[in-house]
Amino acid sequence: MAFNPFLGKSQEWLETELSNAQRDFSRGKATVGATSADMSIRSEVEISLTQRIQLILRALNRIDPTTYPIEQISPISATKAVFS
Question: pTM for this structure?
Answer without folding.
Answer: 0.51
